[in-house]
Amino acid sequence: MGHRNPGYLENNHPALNQEIKIGGQTIARITAGARKDQIKLTFEQELGELPIYEMKFEFGARLAMDEIDGRQEAAIGLVADHTVRLKITDNAIKDPAVTGKSGVYEKTGTIAWTVSLSKQIAPFDEDQNALKYTTGFLFCDELTDKQTYVDNSLTLKVGDWETHPAVQVDGQTLRVTLDQPLSQEGSITYRTMPSSAVFVGDDGQLADPSQGMKVTNTAQLWQPDGSTKLSEAQGEVLVKG
Questions:
Q1: So what's the pLDDT on residue 213?
Q2: Which of 151, 154, 144 is nearest to 215 (CA)?
Q3: How far apart are CA 128 and CA 85, in angstroms?
Q4: Which candidate, 82, 68, 66, 2, places its Cα nearest to that of 35?
Q5: Residue 45: per-residue pLDDT
Q6: 32 near 16, Cβ under 8 Å?
C-alpha cells in the first residue's frame, strides 16, 4: 500500500525503513516512497494465519510551504478516503499596519517623513487559486498646525514598486487611498514644510532657534471604508533655526 500527500507534505525521514512486527514476526515494513511526499506500507508475503490487530503507526512530515501558496487551511489526504484539514497559523489572515514613523530635518528647511507598513496576510481564494489582497487602505497623517504638506512629494513603495497616489489635504490631515495592495512590506515617504511658528511654544513664548523645537505627526492606517482604524504610530523631528 502506498500513500501520497499531494504536494503539501514532505516525508521528514527520507531514509525511513521501519518494521512492523506481531509476536516477533515481521508482517510489514514502512519505507519512504519514490517521491518526497510519499510513504509506503508493504506487507510481507506468505504471512499465513495471523490474529487481527488494530495497527497504529506514526511518521514525521514537514509542510512544503511553497506548495501551500498562502492558504489558511490545507486538506491533507491520509489513508483510504480520510482527509484532515490542517490550519496554517503562519498564514492566518492579518491586516497591514503602520509599524513605525521617522523624520529627518533637511538643509532645505523641509522635513522628510518615512512611514513603515507591514504586509497584509490575505485570505486565499480557492476559485482563483490565489491570495485575495485588498486595495484601497486609507492612510491618514495628522500634522500639527505649524507645518504644511509639500505638494507632489508623496511616494508609496511596496516591494520594488513605486506609485504616487493622490493626496487630499483636509485641514491639518493628509488622506491618501493606497492604490496598490500591500502584498509586501512597504513605506510611504513625503515632505512637510515647518513654518516660523514652530519656534513659538504652547505658552506663546519664542523658543531659542538654536536649541530647536520638536515637530510631531501621527500616521494612521484605516480600512478602505474608513470605518476602522487598524493602527497608528507617532514620529517627531527636532527642527532648528
A1: 77
A2: 144
A3: 20
A4: 2
A5: 65
A6: yes
- With contact defined as beta carbons under 8 Å apart, do 41 and 80 qualify? no
pLDDT along the chain (241 residues), means of 10: 45 64 71 63 64 57 61 63 66 89 92 96 84 94 87 96 95 92 96 77 61 84 95 89 65
Query: Can you name the residues that pair with 233 across neighbouring β-strands?
Result: 219
Q: Phi, psi at residue 164, to the nearest 5°?
A: -130, 75
Torsion over CA: 63, 69, 75, 80 (sign): negative
Identify the residue whose cell numbers are 497616489. 165
pLDDT value of residue 175 = 96
Between CA 167 and CA 156, with CA 149 as vertex, the angle to 5 degrees is 45
Only one residue has cell 492566518, namely 92
Alpha-carbon gap, residue 78 to 2, rounded angstroms: 10
What is the rounded CA–CA span in Å between residue 19 and residue 99? 53
Q: Residue 241: count other Cβ atoms within 10 Å of its Cβ.
A: 13
Q: Which residues contact 5 (CB under 8 A, 6 or more apart)?
A: 37, 38, 61, 76, 77, 78
3-state class (DSSP) for residue 21: strand
Longest dimension (CA), the chain: 102
- For residue 91, the 8-state DSSP code is G
Which of the 8 DSSP states describes residue 58?
A: -
Contact 27/44 with Cβ under 8 angstroms?
yes
Helix (H, G, I), strand (E, B) or coil at 68: helix
DSSP state of 89: G
List CB contacts of 161: < 8 A, sequence separation 6 or more.
180
Dump the DSSP string for 167-200. EEEETTEEEEE-SS--SS-EEEEEEEEE-GGGGB
